[in-house]
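Researcher: Batch entry, complex prediction.
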Amino acid sequence: MALWFSRSRNIIAHLVKTKISPINQSLFHAKYISYKLPYELVWELRKEYSSTATGMVFRRFESARAGEVEEAVTYSTSDYDDDDDEINDAENKTIDFPGGSVAFTQQMKFISESPDKRVPCYRVLDDDGYPIAGSTYEQVDKEMAVKMYKSMVTLQIMDNIFYEAQRQGRISFYLTSMGEEAINIATAAALSFDDIILPQYREPGILLWRGFTLQEFANQCFGTKDDYGKGRQMPIHYGSKQHNFFTISSPIATQLPQAAGVAYSLKMDNKEACVVAFTGDGGTSEGDFHAGMNFAAVMEAPVLFICRNNGWAISTPISEQFRSDGVVVKGQAYGIRSIRVDGNDTLAVYSAIRAAREMVVREQKPILVEALTYRVGHHSTSDDSTKYRPLDEIEHWKTARSPLARFRKWVQRNGWWNDEGETELRGTIRKQLLNAIQVAEKSEKPSLVDLFTDVYDNLPLNLHEQEKSLRETIKRHQKDFPSDVPV
Amino acid sequence: MAFGSLRRIERFGWASSKLEQRGRSIVRRLSTFTEVDESKKNSSHQETGKSNKSVNLFSAINQALHIALETDPRSYVFGEDVGFGGVFRCTSGLSDRFGKRRVFNTPLCEQGIVGFAIGLAAMGNRAIAEIQFADYIFPAFDQIVNEAAKFRYRSGNQFNCGGLTIRAPYGAVGHGGHYHSQSPEAFFCHVPGIKVVIPRSPQQAKGLLLSSIRDPNPVVFFEPKWLYRLAVEEVPDKDYMLPLSEAEVIREGSDITLVGWGAQLSIMEQACFDAEKDGISCELIDLKTLIPWDKETVEASVNKTGRLLVSHEAPITGGFGAEIAASIVERCFLRLEAPVARVCGLDTPFPLVFEPHYMPTKNKILDAIKSTVKY
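Model: Structure tokens for the complex:
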């Protein structure tokens, strides 16, 4: 867990020099030094520093408003005469602009379009499921670990069976989360039930973790009368008020600005909860990504943005999606703290989301998490990804990089899981799913009245007329209409 | 997203004497509206009686927003430049009175404003979002069409954003050119799940806005910006609501029915006066809510007069007038004595110098009334 803290580079530099050593690596040339420090450390230092900094020179921050004074003091550099002379020299030359004082320099220097090193990815388990020496992570006990692993397996089997059901023509569409089971389940496990989910669409594991049953999944995919969405949306567009999971809509990233609004409401109500909003790598190119990030930052709305960067937006690779170092770097531009995590490392995702969620709720500010992963499945059942990416690449991620396999090694090595348990679990889940499909297939469709309700809170006259007219048409031409929709 | 001159004029009054003249004539016409209402003794104004003050349209909107925030602690008002009172002064005094947590500026991003508002409304709040000009609502089109309008339906009524109201000034203003003049209502009338409401006067604006805010469905509320300062009428101080999806016959007549909404009604009424001098009796209907719209009132009127004219500022092709014409032809075909007339904006971008040519002016309407009656 680390973050850029370039605004306060001088204070950090100073403190690093006097209290900590050695200094972390520098990323730019000398004038634009950024130091990377564990967040907690920086935070502690900042607190300590501001508490001893009372009475520091305010002159440079005369334009600061009351609420900004503390910040201003924290970032003040006037006590750092022993600092790097060059930096100090530049920092002493400041000028007021809207937004506060800014140092100026006689050097015409452009900020590089990319740092020398890519932002590293937080990881706990290596490919063989061994904790990496020195890694810090949340302890996960046996009960939690087994529940997480079982849920990941359940999600995988559900994907396999519904995918096959679509291939057999039993449902119209499906979209798997294969390869992203760790992000789904570890995120869900790290959150509080009260946290409100604004999903993209590749996060059914959150619902699964929260108790949405396999039957409920099947009801939606088959569009039965028991589907909470009343059969109105394509398969996988789940939603459940009871599980604090907003109904999925297909348009990309539209949920992100909404997340800021939902979170603002939680903030106004002083709730101990946050909003968790998902997007993919492709979604970050949408205007709504910008809108959501910027609104959450400006409104100080408690939103945990999670980007599943799986490398592919249908057939578009991330190299054709953006030229930045992925998504994590976009956070700072919005004034949003961010972290990059190995999305195939269950323990890393769990630990990062736990920490991020806690900060979001405590500080009432958004955080961005970029989880690096790979979309092992096709985009959806309407896509054949072998047309645009090599089979061996898919196979590599499916096997060698599988988040399930890696987590299982760790769980099994702890003595919490064994091969017999695995076989039994897979058999049970498979049976439950086949049963759920059978039940859903036998269920009635929602009745015709549900075509017209919920457009508004009440049926307006035009819909009354149209319903009446349609019913007459159905009487005359029964064969034109599906027989399993009760009229 | 406003340009300076328009803001300046809005803040400091009308610069050009020609505009001022047209403005004053609108004020005169609108006060006649009130008299028409009074003579029918059925307006809410009559019901409320006493404590009425003459106020302009932006002040009536401001009153409604004060009442909305006062009566519901879960209501919020926000948008670009809303904090200091708004570029049209509609939100004056609100942040002082209700605090910056409930009345606030947003970043300059329409899709963000509407997306944020949808999320806020989905949590059981009344989110009153302002889009500074209707011309700039299009970045939010996806949020309105694909999100707000379908929020309830797609979730099987588990979630809704019914507390959402989007306010946006629309229409000609004499000098607004392409991007401060448009009337985009027809785009939104093609979207089941939202309501579209347009008031014609200060009294109507207050009552209809309060209804829109309190309606359990998302509403797009277009405010006629030409009338913000120019239209003045007595507005009850109190909290009152006017029904949505109910049209109003604001002038009774027997020879032809005229249907319109918003600022255009004042032009249409002037045409009615002139037609009367030629012995033509015009019935004028304010539709008020465009979707879901009150077909019955229009149908009843056309069944009486046998003729229909629809007028709006938006371009004629694909305008909401076409929907009204088609619906009424379906319902009143045998009663119609002439083709339905449409007097609307031209199928050009909204022009600056040519605004008087583009607009559905009084005399264009008058000519259409005469030719329809003589058909």
